[in-house]
Structure formats: C-alpha cells, structure tokens
Amino acid sequence: MEQNPEGPARVYSLDAGRSSRDVGLPIVGRSSVRRRLVPVVRHALLAGVALLFLLPFYWMVTSALKDNTEIFARPIQWWPRTMRWENFGTAMNYPGFPFLRLLWNSVYYSGTVTVGTVISCAAVGYGFARLRFPGRDFLFILTVATLMIPPIVTFIPTYVIFKNVNLLGTYAPLIIPNCLGNAFFIFLMRQFFKGLPWELSDAAKVDGAGELRIFWQIMLPLVRSALMVVAVFTFLYTWHDFFGPLIYLSDVSQYPLSLGLFAFRAQRTTEWALLMAASTLATAPLVVLFFFTQRYFLGGIAMTGIKG
Amino acid sequence: MTLSGGPAQRVPVSTEEVWDMAVIAGGRLVRMSPMRRREALAGFLFVFPWLLSLLLFTTYPVLRAFYLSFTEYNIVQPPKWTGIANYRTMFTTDTAFWPSVRNSAYYALISVPLRLVLALALALLLNLRARGIGAYRTLYYLPALAPPVAGTIIFILMFEPDRGLINAVLGGLGFSEPGWLTDPKWSKPALIILSLWGLGAESLIFLAGLKEIPPSLLEAAAIDGAGPWQRFRNITIPLLTPVILFNLVLGVIGSFQVFTQALVIGGTTGEPLESTLMFMVHIYRNAFRYFSMGYASALAVMLFLAILAITLIIFRSARVWVYYEGEER
To answer: Chain A interface, mutation test: which of B37, B41, B68, B142, most A Cβ atoms within 10 Å?
Structure first.
C-alpha cells in the first residue's frame, strides 16, 4: 500500500499517472486562492479527526500524571498541575497489580504463541499451496469453513478437555491450540506460497533437494514479509486476548496484562489516576512495537484486510 | 477421542467412517508413483499440526457442543440427555435471554452500518492528496493498538456522568449531559461510541480498496462532465462493493460477539439494568459462572446459527449489489 510518491501537493491536473487519491472529492479549479486554501482545509480536516482519535490517549496519559481531583476538575484541567510520576510507581507496586510479573506473562504468552503460529502457519500454508496429497482440497475448504464458527462454540468443550487433563490454571490451554495453526493465517500463507514461481522448486528438486529443504531454504525467505505480517498481528491479538486468560487462569501472578488490568479495575474502581497509569503501562509496549513494525501492520491490513 | 472419558461421550463420527476415509486415502497413496508418494507424505507431514488442531480443537468441540446443547451438564457429573429442554428454556424461563438478544441486536444494527459509513468517510479523507498523509494513517490506526480492556477503562473515565471529560465538554458547549454508562438508555450508545474509536483499522481496508480503483476511470468520467458526487456514486461505490461486503460480513460477525468491552463496563449482570448484557456475556455467565455447560452450549449453538443465517443472507444479497469485475453471475 505504500505507493507513496506524494508528488508536489499543488498539482491538481487530470494528468495520467496520478493515483486515485481524490476519488469522489472535488477536483479543484486552478484559481490561486483556492489552490492555496484547499491544502489548508484538508490539513485542518485531517488534523481535527486525528485529534479526536488521539484524545482518549491524551486523557489517559495526562490523567495518569494527575491526582483524582484534577481528573474531574471543572473547568477541565487539560494539563497536570504537577507531574505525579509517582503514580506509575504506585500502580506498579500495587499488591493486586504486580506489573513486572504481568508484563512478563504477556510477553511470554504473546511471544510463544507468535513463534508457534508463524512456524505452524508457514508449514501448513506451504503444504496446502505447494504439495499434492489426497484430500488436500477438502481439508483446505474445511479450514476456511472453520472461520465461520464463533470461537465460543469450541471454547466450552475445549475447556472440558483441558479440565480433564488437569491443565486449568496453566498457560497450556492458551498456548497449545494456538500453536497448531490459525485458519486465517494458514489461508494467508497459502496465498503467498501459491504466488511463488514453480520453476524455483522444480529446479531445486532436480538438484536433489528434499521437500523440507526447499521449504526452509528456498521458499521461506521469499515470503519473509508475509511471515512478519502474521507475526505482528498474532502478537497484537494475543496481547489483547482477554477471554482465554479470563476462563483459564485463576491466579493473579499468572495473569497477562489485559486480565491484570481488569482485576485492578475491579479492586480500585475510584483510583482513576492509578488506573490510567496502569492502562498506559499495558498499552505502551504495543505502541513501541508498532513504531518499529509499522509497515507490516499497515501493509498487512491493506494486503489482507486483517484488522487490529 | 476418549479425552473426555466415558462411553456415553463418544463423538458422533463412526469409526467405520474414519476407517473408510483412511483406506481410500491409503489406496490412492499405494497407486501413486514413488515420487508422488513421497510428495504426498511430505504434504501430510507439513499440514499435520493443523490436522491435529482441526480434529481436536475444532471438529470435536463443535460436534461436542451440539451434543452438549441437548444435555444438562455441570462438568462434575456426566452430561444428562434432556432433549430440547435447553432450547425451550431460552424461550420460556430464562428471563435474561431476550434482553441479551435485544441488546446484541441493537448494538449490531446500529454499530455495523454506522461503522461502515464512517470508515468509508475516513478512508476518503485518508485518500486525499496532502503532505504527510502517511502520518495521519498511522495516527488513525493507533487506537486499534490499545488493549480492549485499557480502551474500555479510558472510556469509562471519560464517560463519567458528573465530571467526566465528555460531559464537561458537552456541558461547556451548552448541551445536555447524558448519564452514559449509568443510564440504561445511554449505555449502549456509549458502547457504540467506544467501538468507533477503533475505526481506523477498517478505514485502512477501505483505503486499500480505493487505491485499487484505476484513476483513468475517474478521469474519463470527469472529462465526460461527471461531477464529484456522480463519480463517487457511480464509479467509486460500485468498485468498492467487494470491500464493503468484506467489512460488512466481518462487522456483523464481530458485533454479535462483542464481549470484553461489555464485560468491563457492565460486569456479568450487564449493569445498568441489564442494558449492557450482550449475548456473549450471557453465554459466558452461564458457562463459566453457573457452570451450566449444557445450557451455555445451546446458547452458543444459537449464536452460531444466527451468525450463519445472517452471513448467508448477506452473501445471497451480495449477488445483487456487489460488483465483481470481469465476472457475470
């Protein structure tokens, strides 16, 4: 999606070769006043909407640095009177919110699921895309069909399975099913592998390479960006995951951040400054990750229609 | 398949069927050339983890959920067959069933179209030619990164009726100040507003669709004298219908399963006054609070059937309104 040769912002001609950026919006006349005014209006619009989207973040971070009376002050107190950085320390050391522990749990949970998902989805997608075996097409259609099933339908019997093998209260039920593959990402990887030229694998085969080697050394490096897309979105989903930890985990020391935050809120409904500090701490790691992997996030959405 | 023990709990797929399938597949394998056979074996090995998952964590649980929906089951004792009793309960004695259906329907009916329209509007905005448009794209997407629990807590604070930010702004501008999450009439609109915060992700999907539209088409139309609205209405929208369909289907499926936000706001009782008791919260409460697994399975099956029916209707209707290039239907 990064077809980004912005071009001089003043060219509004009908020349060929322009992107369809202005779809449905007025193609502007050439008078100089309008020419100068239009970019201003556009930026005002764009920035206004951006402010709306950022306002909740702004309020979260500034509230985390206020005391409770400032948060609810009228007239609105837009900036903290004194920066109460200690709120972060208090939130992190709160008995019901062992932040570092929760952070580690989230990293562990999201990390293992991400590694497992990337490996399994790459292998399975490759199998469906490039190797012929009886029943393949049926299995693939079945795979896509499972996308229609609301997860809650499978959650109840799966919960019983893990209860019967005594794994409730551990990360096993959260990690194992996810590491065996994810229907959507398998579908995605299959599309990518299907797009690679057959000559590559045929030539390797003639040279005597085995299927595993062709997959690992020739095909996999070619779909690296698709693997990154799978990785960043799996990481994001798992970090956000609330339902799984909610039903499977019972001890605060095991909670990932999302569930820890929920428990924190249940205990301290009125400590808003601390709650906002905790929310900031739970969100910040993803924002940092995002800034390093942006192009996979934004490109991934454009390519595949996955959402955040 | 004996993971959950007990002879009464067998999966309703007969072993003969499985055997037959294996024999057919095996027969085909035997008749293959050695090279094809090796490829087929490799193929099986590559997809093996997923086959395991498909069997153990999808096929079996789905069949099992259907079976459990006809039983009374509290996990401790083995399931007891009760026929359609669970389904009858929904429509008779379960007083929270209809409220939860109504809440979910209200949420879906309003949030899905609203999100479609606004996401498209945002995409048009992001499709403008302006310096630094890439930065705006990033900014609009940021809310999708906030963990749903954190995002919900932020909005609970901002929706605080007495002195929260939103009412402070509304009051300052001279508007009336609704009770938001404390008022059953305003709690669902508040949930919908919260869902709009993550709109950036959908708008990027629309934006990708907009970029696919060949500029030459729009230029040709402009030369022929079509105004901006006509171009939008007669070129952009028709060419965008596949993306609209995609976002519509995902939006419907997602909105029927909204859970985290509703649970954080209203708890398992859907405060205030059951107004945020979404269907998923109702299922969760029955399954993991009351451990009425049989009844919860019946509710989950209903959700499944409802989503299936609505998706099929949408796809059926898509034949009329979705434009596929180079394809006649």
So the answer is: B142
Query: Is residue B59's pLDDT more than 70?
Result: yes
Q: B326 or B45: whose pLDDT is higher?
A: B45
Choose the closest CB to A143 out of B21, B54, B246.
B54
Note the pLDDT of residue A18. Answer: 40
Cα separations (Å) of B8 from A50, A157, B4, B67, B71?
Answer: 58, 15, 10, 11, 12
Cis bond upstream, residue B148 (ω within 30) = no
Of the candidates B259, B251, B257, which has an alpha carbon nearest to the alpha carbon of residue B304? B257
Dihedral, CA atoms, A40, A45, A50, A52, nearest 10 degrees?
140
Selection from A88, A116, A93, A131 nearest residue A219 by Cα: A131
**CB–CB of B52 and A180 under 8 A?**
yes
Q: Which amino acid is at A156?
A: I
Quick one: average pLDDT of B171-189? Answer: 85
Task: Tell me the domain boundaries of chain B.
Answer: 7-68, 97-321
Contacts of B142 in chain A (CB under 8 A): 53-54, 57, 287, 290
CATH number of A99-304: 1.10.3720.10
The pair of structure tokens assigned to B322 is 């979705």
Tell me yes or no: is domain B97-321 CATH 1.10.3720.10.
yes
pLDDT tens digits, residue range B211-242? 888 888 888 888 888 888 888 888 888 888 88
Of A252, A241, A100, residue with least CA distance to A178:
A241
Chain A nearest-CA distance from B140, in A, is 6
Q: Quick check: B281 and B288 in contact, CB under 8 A? A: no
Distance CA(A302)–CA(B100), nearest Å, equals 35
Q: Using CA atoms, how far apart are residues A175 and A236, in angstroms rounded to an integer?
A: 15
What does the DSSP assignment read for B113-148?
HHHHHHHHHHHHHHTS--TTHHHHHHHHHGGGGS-H
Structure confidence at residue B326 (pLDDT): 53
Q: State ipTM.
A: 0.82
Quick: pLDDT tens for A115-165: 999 999 999 999 999 888 888 889 999 998 888 889 999 999 999 999 999
Q: Where are the domains of chain A?
A: 32-92, 99-304
Residue A44 reports pLDDT greater than 80: yes
A229 Cα to chain B: minimum distance (Å): 15
- pLDDT for res A198: 86
First-to-final CA distance of chain B:
44
Q: Who contacts A277 (Cβ-Cβ below 8 Å, separation ≥6)?
A: A64, A87, A88, A90, A91
Q: Find, in chain B, the residue whose alpha carbon is nearest to that of A289.
A: B145
